[in-house]
Amino acid sequence: MACYTANWNPLGSVFYRKFDLYSMDWNLKEDLRDCLIAPGPYGGPIALLKNYSAKGKSSGLRPVLEIYTASGLPLSSIPWKSGQVVQLGWTVTEDLLCIQEDGSVLIYDLFCGFKRHFSMGNEVFQHHVVEARVFHTEYGTGVAILTKASRFTLTTNIDDLKLRRMPDIPGPPSCWAVLFQDRATMILFAFGKDLYLLDHTSCSLMVPPGMNPLAGSYLAMSISFNHKLLALFTEPGYIWMGSSSLKEKFDDHNSSIQLSPKQMVWCTRPRSKQHAVVLMWDRLLMLVGNSTESIQFVLDEESYLIPELDGVRIFSRSTHEFLHEITGATEEIFKIASMAPGALLLEAQKEYEKASQKADEYLREIKDKGLLSEAVTQCIEAAGYEQEPEMQKSLLRAASFGKCFIDKFSPDGFVKMCSELRVLNAIRDYQIGIPLSYTQFRQLTIEVLLDRLVLRRLYSLAIKICDYLRLSEFQGVSRILAHWACYKVQQKDKSDEEIAKAINQKLGDTPGISYSEIAARAHACGRMELAIKLLEYEPRFGEQVPLLLKMKRSKLALSKAIESGDTDLVYTVVTYLKNELNRAEFFMTLQNQPVALSLYRQFCKHQELETLKDLYNQDDDHQELGNFYMRSSYTSEKRIEGRVSALQSAVDEYSKAKNEFACKATEDQIKLLRMQHRLEDELDKSYLDMSLHDTVYNLVMDGMFSKAEQFYKEFKIPDKRYWWLKISALAEREDWEEMEKFSKSKKSPIGYLPFVEMCMKQHNRYEAKKYVARVAPEQRVRSYILVGDLDQAAEAAIEHKNENEMILVQSKCTPTTDSVILEKINRAKTQILKK
Amino acid sequence: MAAHLSYGRVNLNVLREAMRKELREFLDKCAGTKAIVWDEYLTGPFGLIAQYSLLKEHEVEKMFTLKAGRLPAADVKNVIFFVRPRLELMDIIAENVLSEDRVRCPRDLHILFVPRRSLLCEQRLKDQGVLGSFIYREEYGLDLIPFDGDLLSMESETSFKECCLENDQTSLYHAAKGLMTLQALYGTIPQIIGKGECARHVANMMMRMKREFTGCQNAILPVFDTLLLLDRNVDLLSPLATQLTYEGLIDEIYGIQNTHVKLPPEKFAPKKQGEGGKELPTEPKKLQLNSAEELYAEIRDKNFNAVGPVLSKKAKVISAAFEERHHAKTVGEIKQFVSQLPHMQAARTSLANHTSIAELIKLITTSEAFRDNLTVEQEFMPGIDTDKVNSYIEDCIAQKDPLIKILRLVCLQSVCNSGLKQKVLDYYKREILQTYGYEYLLTLNNLEKAGLLKHQGNSRNNYPTIRKTLRLWVDEVNEQNPNDISYVYSGYAPLSVRLAQLLARPGWRSIEEVLKLLPGPHFEERQPLPVKQPLPVGLLKKRQQGENKVTLVFFLGGVTYAEIAALRFLSQMEDGGTEYIIATTKLINGTSWIKSLMDKPEAPPF
């Protein structure tokens, strides 16, 4: 193991190491210094623009845009025909931004496919771009521009373009950087010996704490990956390191190189207490940090630095390396003569393989201190930081070995590390060329990694990873297949039929597939028929319908919405159609869709009454029209003439509908309204809106007997009801005289029991008794009971020899006071029984 | 809190918990203190899912009722509108939002649509210029609400009216969605059987939604064996007849709303003497009625005539139990007695309450009006004199009894005669219009459209055939110890339940002819279980011998408590072989049902 730490370089209290990721295979003829270079973070692709400078043009060489994987495999290239490019940069979704001198920004995908462009504004256009930076924040990808007029313009999110022109600055800055703090984007720049912070409103002078007063002018600055750290390089080769808020200084260092470095980037890792900066000059790479010493590497050729979350990648024409700080776990295990539990466990496992008893000794030593689970965790963690599968395996083997001696050690962490390392090793492969470290992978998440594989059209690998990690179909496979399909619909050389079929065959009913998304893509490519074919496969109507509307297939949308049963969706289409079509066409369309029509009627009933009428008219639905007028006579007409004329319209419609009854009833209603109106005039009392019954009742109550009679005749009120009505009104009026007169006017069609009942309702027993004698025999017992004459009731019941009646009377008797009656009934009952 | 939901064969608490979880997740999404603005109609149903305590745990500090004008002041971070997706409500919300003081007290606004988000409503909010003010616009799929251990309802008041009169099948869409949720929790129901147009529509939608939901299906051993979808208009008769079970009568007389009933307070005055017993409470007494109460669970489905004996028996048991204390001698015995005390006291309170309710009901059932009305119903249902004008109805109209009572009787007569002769029908209609007002022409029109009132025309009267084949009328009814479902109406066996009964045994094939006489198609669908993920072996074990099948009966358009009682009776039959869970769009009785169909034009309030 002696060689393991050979490439470890101490700096202060920690170690740094640099190792090869790939040997670059890109056969680059040009020198890197002649190219515009943009490497993507998180092991992203490298974009090169060759012969970009105006100087190149004179030599007759056309500029070429080339994109490579991090391992140097060509992905795509195009001859560059647009304007002068100042800066290249990658977005978080791995699109390439080409910022041109005139401030227009062109967006390309990984395969040099042009996506769109946008402009950084008129001012930039006029003054031209001097320098530009592409930066990433939690809002997305942003662009900052410095113009020749020394003004900054920036946008925080290119997908939601809002240009911001920053306040004026004293003059052209010597160096600058974009800073993101407290959800605000700012610019830090140096002008001579002064440092300024520029935000939306102001430009303020800053003094870094603990700055060497002899430092001189600022030549370079660097903000860390997470925007938390700031490094400044000044004229005499002095380096200041501190927090980006400029509130704290960590270290400083004097490199005594007075030349401005070609690149200066932070080399640190999350949660590390160490702060180190990598500086690069022509032949020298220097790492400075918390020490007066520095680590220096000689560079054989032109190189380029890529800051990462946990280190720095360095690539040149022939190699691609990674420089990073050794983590705690790795250091503990591998440091020479380390007695850390992890180190012992690794040793124990090796001895065990050699079948040596030393394995037991080592193991005991760890176990005695109770550090075994720490040892296992350490080995698992350290495995994650190893690049070489062999080393990963030996650490994991040690962890697995140690695990056996612990009760209830949760295997989750171990299993997870094994499977994730397997994925990482697969994507680090030279053919794929994504040199993602474990720390970066955890930050990026598996979902984003899958997206990136999909962007590189590595569908099969992505699906294998999903299967291997057992991601739910929804999260994994479905998304990948959908992406594949979106790519497929852009293949212009195949017929709609062929593509739709191919897509459906592969995707089938895979859960979570959104056919509508694929269709939307097809639509965006101008393939209408294909989009419609694809939509046929979409099971979710809620997705299908809006897209059909967007594609102006409104009639198809309508029938789909109806098929779904989702009435809200139907309403949506109907509202859309209403705005889209002229009225006649709109009505015609509805005509063919009864469900939509009745829903629209419902809508009109509450929102647009007049339209409702038109709809009925168009259908010749006279019954509903009649109802419509009838309703409006009550709800919208106030004046009597209006009401009558509405009702008259209703009569006409009902008669067209051949509804004789409704016709007659409405005519009667008109008649009633008119008569009530007349009564109101005559009697100065309110009668309107009373029912016929109530009108007559009120007339009787007011003693207008002849008027009441008139209504009775006019409306042919049945005798029975009229009698009921009249006697109850008379009783309420306590007009006993009139009641008696009425009872004698002719033979009552309802008998005389109601008279008794009505009198008793007003508690007039005296009057009630007058009618008892006239009650038909079969109701007489009931009438005696009503007036409270139980004795007579009993007599009558006995006379009828009716047992039920006797029981009824009995039930009304109280044993204490009515004993005589009870006895009488009992006697009669036994007599009946005897017979 | 809701333990009674889990006592049944199907643990409906699972559904309730799922709903609660969804609600909690939504509330937590809106971080910080909150005020809820309620669409008033929703408060009742929500009460069955989550009490105020749950809301409070999630920082709901204030609750308001949605009304026009300005929102009440409340120092909260979030204001959430809980509303049904209705345009008129959107207008009110827009008014609320526009009058918010966004500068002085900025509050985050959210909207929760129950049960479904609506593009139409969002468009309306957009037109009013307030759509952008809402941070979250989400939906809360509260379709089927657990009312009891075997009962689910959507509490959608207007469902029957919308389907029958307006051809608006929104509620059926919600029903289908609710059934999908149910299947997600309780497994795919292998067999779907239905009768009626709406049933067909719901089944079709379920089949289609299955495609949408692929991937979300869980591999659960199905809890339900069969889903029976029944249209209300297959059986228009049952809701019209007066329910004669205890629960049915409480509903007929006082109306049960979301398992709560409000009763006149006099009977519930504290009986203690000397403590100012003269003062009678004026607030109505509010009681919750569900199977959590042991006594109620026992008597709710009995014929009212059988309730008295049970109550007096219970009274004896309880007083005997209290007497025990005199026999308790040792400390151990006393301790045991004391430990039972809370349970006994609860039982005593429960008994006192139900004795009072029974007394209140008895006052009504023994009244002449009730008896006369029932006599007429019981003549119509066996088909006696249904083809001529009934003099009792005539007299009732002449005395201007409540219109709904008249309409129930006339409709009952029409249904029991497969429609009335033109002369009879016109006579009734004319009488009603003259007595109650011509504006009821629209109501009568609605009833005709719904098939409740019908002109017989030249078609035959099918009712006798249906009645005889399905044994809808049973002369010998045992109210105390029933042996047939007809006890719930003291003679009439609800048609809907009879269909369910015959489906279980011997199957609908035996009544093919009668089914054809009833409106709408009948059908059967089979749903294959999701094959992609085979069931875990442990779950696949065969049903134990003798274990009953479970059928979910879904009444589209409403169900009465008497019908529920009849289904429960079937579940409990020893050799029944089937247990029933009941779902419906709304719990109804004849009165509320007819009311929902009435159309009385009134001048607009503004």
Query: How confident is the prediction overall: mean pLDDT of chain A?
Result: 88
> How far from one another are the termini of chain B?
44 Å
Please give the CATH class of the largest domain in chain B: Alpha Beta
CATH architecture of the largest domain in chain B: 3-Layer(aba) Sandwich
Helices of chain B, by number, come to 23
Q: Give the radius of gyration of chain B.
A: 26 Å
Calculate the mean pLDDT score of chain B and round it. Answer: 89
Class computed from helices, strands and strand pairing of chain B: alpha/beta
Number of strands of chain B: 15
Q: Using CB atoms under 8 Å apart, which protein chain pair has the greatest interface?
A: A-B, 56 and 51 residues
Task: Specify the CATH homologous superfamily of the largest domain in chain B.
Answer: Sec1/Munc18 (SM) protein, domain 2
Low-confidence stretches of chain B: 532-542
CATH topology (level 3) name of the largest domain in chain B: Rossmann fold
Widest sheet, order of strands of chain A: 1-2-29-28-27
Low-confidence stretches of chain A: none
- As a percent range, the share of strand residues of chain A is 15-25%
Helical coverage of chain B, percent range? 40-55%
Overall structural class of chain A, as computed from helix and strand content, comes to alpha+beta
Give the overall silhouette of chain A.
elongated
Q: What proportion strand of chain B?
A: 5-15%
